[in-house]
Amino acid sequence: MSELAPRRVAVTGLGAVSSIGIGIEAFTAAVREGRDGVTDIQSFDSTGFRHTRAGEVHDFRPRDHLERLPAEKWGRSSQFAAAAARLAVRDAGWDADGLSASRAGSAMGTTNGEARVFQELTEQWMAQGIDGIDGDLAARASADRIAAAVNTELGLRGEAQTFGTACSASNYAIGYGFDLIRGGAADVMIAGGADAVNRATHAGFHRLGAIAPDLCRPFDEDRGGIMTAEGGAALVLESWDSAVSRGARIYAEVLGYGLTCDAKHPTQPDRDGIAECIRRAHRDAGVEPDEIDYVCAHGTGTAANDSTEVAAVREVFGDRIPPISSIKSMLGHTMGAASGFGALACCMALYEGFLPPTATVRSVDPALGPDLDCVPGRARPARPRIVENHGFAFGGNNAIVMLGRPA
Amino acid sequence: MSGTTESTAVRITGYGVISAAGAGGKVLYEAVRSGTLPPGDGGAQALDGQPAPPGVRLLSVPDFAPREYLGRKGLSALSRTTTLSMVAAELALAGLPEPGGPEERADTGVVLGTSTGSARAFAEFFRESYEAERPYLVSPALFPGLLLNHGASQVAMRHSFTGPNASLAGGQISALSALRYARNALLTGRAARLLTGAVEELGAHTAWAWHRGGALGERPALGEGSAVFVVETAGGGTGPAAGRSLAELTACEVAFSPLDEGPDAVAAALARCVEDALRVGGAEPGDIGVVSAGASSGPGWSAVEARGRRRALAGHTPEVLRVQEVLGETYSASGALQLAALIAHWEDGASRSDGRADWGLVTSVGHDGSVGAALLRRPSAAG
Questions:
Q1: Which of A244, B277, B324, B365 is the most exposed place for a label (fewest CB within 10 A)?
Q2: Per-residue confidence band for B68, with pLDDT thresholds at 50, 70 and 90
Q3: Mean pLDDT, to the nearest integer, of A177-190?
Q4: Which UniProt keywords apply (chain A) (predicted)?
C-alpha cells in the first residue's frame, strides 16, 4: 500500500443524535441559532446533587432511526452510535447493499462506554447482591459494542474499532479512519463517537467542582464549569474517488490530524502537550498557522481548560489567533462524542459558510488575553477554508483533526 | 513467495507478560506446554472478599504485588487493570537491551486494548455515589480510573512517553485491535516506538457477569493478565534495540460479521482476515509453523474460530498452542497472551526447519462478530 500515492479523504455524510437536534439539519440549525440543549436531569435520580442539569437527548427513540439493530439488546451509547451512523449514511446517499459490499468499517470513540449499563448493573448489585445481576444486561457492558453496533446496523464487514481515549476519542477515530482510507486499507469509514449521561460521570465532575449550575459558559469570566451531556455523532469518510464517482455531496476534506500525550497529570491539561499536538496536526495536513480560519475549541468551560487551551493556541499562532469558539456552550460536554460533534460543526461551517458560536458567553474572561474572538451569541457568516477541531482528554490524550473546504 | 517487504514490517523488540502462570514468557510457555499452572489462591485476592460464582475456576495472577515492580508510590488509586498493564509494560521495557533515551520519548507512545477499563472500579465508583452522604462525595482520586484510557495514560506518565497514546476496546479481539492500530501508527510515521498490548482484570463483578451471561462453556474458567510488546519500524536501526528482533509483526487484520448473518459468516470473515494477513505478509499457508489459538470459550465460538482457520489454511495443519485451555477466558487480554506464548515458544528454541514453518499466526473471534488475525515471522538470525 505504501507504493501508492496517498488518497484524499472526503466527508460525504453527517449524522447527529444530540440534545439540540437529531439529524444534521436540526443540529446545524440549532448551532447557527446558538440554542442550548440543557435541561433538568432525567436519566438518574439527581436528588442530593447541588447541580442537577445536563445535556440529555430526551426525544431519542432508536426505532425511529435504526433499520437492522435490535435496540432492546444494546446499551444507550451503542444505540446513539448506530442511529448517528445510520443518519450519516442516509445523508451520504449510500444505498445499504452498496455500502455493505464495499470495503467499509467503523471507528467510534467513547469516554465511558456503556456507562448506563454499568449504572443499572450497580443498582442490581446493591438491591440483590452481586449474584443477582442480570446476565443479558451484563453482556451489554463492553465498550467495544459501540462500533460493533454501527457495523451491525449498517452490515459493514470491515473493522469495527472502538476508541476508549476519553473526551478526544472521536478525533482519534476520525484520524484512524483517515489513515486507513488514505493508505488504501479501506474505502469508507464511519467515524465518530457516543456517550450517555450517567450518575458516575456526573458525580465525578461534580466532586472536582467542575460542573456548572445553569449553563456551560466557555471563555466567560463567570464560567461555572462543564455540563455533562450525551449523544452520538458520525461522519462518513470516503475516498475522494469514491465520493466523486458516486456524485456525492462533499462537505469537507480531512486534511490530517495530530496526536500527543501530556504524560504529566491524570486530569490537568498541559499547554506544551496541546501546542505540540496543534503543530503535529498542521504538519500532517501540510498547513501553516496563518492559513487556519477557525478553531473549534475543546472549550469545556472550566478555568483550567480555557486558560490552557488559549495559551497553547497563542503559543502556536502568535499574535494572530483565529476565531475560536466552543459548541459545548450549546451541547454541554458529550464526552467521547464531543470532538465528533465538533467535526460535524466544522464540516457544516465549511460547507455552508459560517462560524459556530460560543452561544452562552457574556463577558470574555480578560485573563485569557486580548483580542480573543470566541464568536459570541449566534453563528457568524464567514467563508472559512481550513479549520481545526480540538479534542483533549483526561489522561492527557490530545487529538486534533484538520478539515478543509472541498476544492 | 517468501520474505516481507521492508515497508510493511514492524519488529517486536521486547515483551512483558503477567498471567496465572506468573511473570514472564518462560513460565507462560511452560504452562501452555505442560497444561498446568502453578498453585494459585482460587482467585481469593482478586475477589477481595466478594463471593465467587459457583463452578467457575478463577485463574488469577498468583500473589500479584504491583509494588514489587512499580514501587509503592501512588498505587492506592490504581485499579488492578491499570497495575496489570503497568507491570507488563515495565517487564517489556526491562527486557530491552538498554532503555530508550529522553530524546526518544516524544516519538514513543502506548497503545492498549481493554474493553471496559476496570469493571470493578467503575461499579464501585457508581456504588460510592449511591452510598455516600451526598451523591457527589465520591473519591476524586479514583475518578480518572473509571476511564478506558487510564492504564495507557499511567504507563505514559510513568515513563514520560508523549507520543501517540491510544486505548482500544475490542472485546475478545482487543489485543489485535491494539496491535493493528500500533502497526498503522508506526507505518504512517506517527510514532517510532510503541508499547502495545492488552489487559484484563479478574474480579467478582466480571466473574458474575460471565457466569450469569452463560457464555463460559462447559468447563468454565476465567483468567486475567496483561502482555505488552515493544514494537518499532523495521528500518529503525538506531534505537536501543537496533538489530534485535523477537519477531516481525508482518500483518494484523481485523474484520466484522454482523451476528444476524450467522456463525458461518463469522468463520468466513476470520478466513478472510487470515488470507489478507498472508497476502500482506507475503506468506502461504504452508509457511505457518504454529498457531496460537484464540481464547473464545463461549459455546460454539472455539469451533467457529477453528473452522475459519481451517478454511484459510487450506488443509495445512500447523502446531496449535491452546493458550486459553490453560489460562482460562482472558477476554481483552487473550490475543496479547496468545502472542506472548507464541514468542516464548520461539524463544524456547522450538525446532525450526529449512526456512519454512517460520511463521506464526494468532487468531481471535469475539462474541459480537468481530474477528482478527496477526501474522508473525520468526527472526531469520538468532540474537
A1: A244
A2: very high
A3: 98
A4: Acyltransferase, Transferase
Cell numbers standing for residue A404: 478543509
* Predicted confidence band of residue B352 (pLDDT cuts 50, 70, 90): low
What is the average per-residue pLDDT within B2-15?
Answer: 70
Query: Grid coordinates representing A37?
Result: 440543549
pLDDT greater at residue B350 or residue B97: B97
**What totals of helices (H) and strands (E) does chain B contain, helices first?**
12, 13
Interface test mutation site (partner B, options A188, A207, A211, A265, max chain B beta carbons within 10 A): A207
B317 burial via Cβ count (<10 Å: 0-12, 13-18, 19+): exposed
Q: Using CB atoms, pick whichever of A208, A260, A395 lies closest to residue B149.
A: A395
Burial class (CB in 10 A: 0-12, 13-18, 19+), B136: buried
Average confidence score pLDDT of chain A: 97
Q: Is the dihedral of CA B66, B69, B74, B79 positive or negative?
A: negative
> Quick check: B259 contacting A, CB < 8 Å?
yes
For residue A350, give the DSSP letter: I
Report ipTM (2 d.p.). 0.97
Whether the CB of B212 is below 8 Å from some CB of chain A: the reply is yes
Asked if A134 and B212 come within 8 Å (Cβ–Cβ), the reply is yes
User: B25-34 and B334-347 helices cross at what angle (nearest 10)?
Assistant: 90
- A56 with A43: CB under 8 angstroms? yes
* φ, ψ for residue A250, nearest 5 deg: -110, 115
What backbone torsions phi and psi does residue B334 show, to the nearest 5 degrees?
-55, -50
Span B331-343, average pLDDT: 98
Q: What one-letter code names the amino acid at B331?
A: Y
Look up residue A330 and give its three cell numbers: 450549546
**Residue B126: which of A119, A148, A185 has the nearest Cβ?**
A119
Known catalytic residues of A are: 167, 298, 333
Q: Measure B109 CA to nearest chain A CA, in Å.
A: 8
Helices (H), B109-203: 119-131, 150-159, 174-187
Mutation pick from B86, B114, B120, B256 vs chain A, by most beta carbons of A within 10 Å, is B256
Nearest CB among B164, B180, B258 relative to A259 is that of: B164
Residue A136's φ and ψ, nearest 5 degrees, are -65, -40
Q: Residues 353-382, chain B: which have Cβ within 8 Å of A? A: 366-370
Domains in chain B (CATH in brackets) are 6-233 (3.40.47.10), 248-377 (3.40.47.10)
- Cell numbers that stand for B30 in this block: 511452560
Please answer yes or no on whether B369 and A266 come within 8 Å at the CB atom.
Answer: no
Per DSSP, A226 falls in state: B
Question: Per-residue pLDDT tens for B163-187?
Answer: 999 999 999 999 999 999 999 999 9
Enumerate domains of chain A plus CATH numbers: 9-246 (3.40.47.10), 255-404 (3.40.47.10)
Mean pLDDT of A146-160: 98
Residues in chain A: 407
Burial class (CB in 10 A: 0-12, 13-18, 19+), A371: exposed
CB contact under 8 A, B135 and A199: yes
- Determine, for residues A394 and B144 on separate chains, whether the beta-carbon distance falls below 8 Å: yes
**Residue A136's CB: how many other CB atoms inside 10 A?**
12
Q: Answer positive or negative: Cα dihedral of A158, A108, B142, B107.
A: positive
Q: For residue A138, what are the contacts with CB-CB under 8 A and spacing of at least 6?
A: A117, A121, B208, B209, B210, B212, B213
CB contact under 8 A, A263 and B368: no
What CA–CA distance (Å, rounded) separates B60 from B63? 9
- Cα torsion B35, B41, B47, B52 to 10°: value is 70
Q: Find all residues with CB under 8 Å of B8, minimum gap 6, and list them.
A: A1, A2, B187, B250, B251, B280, B281
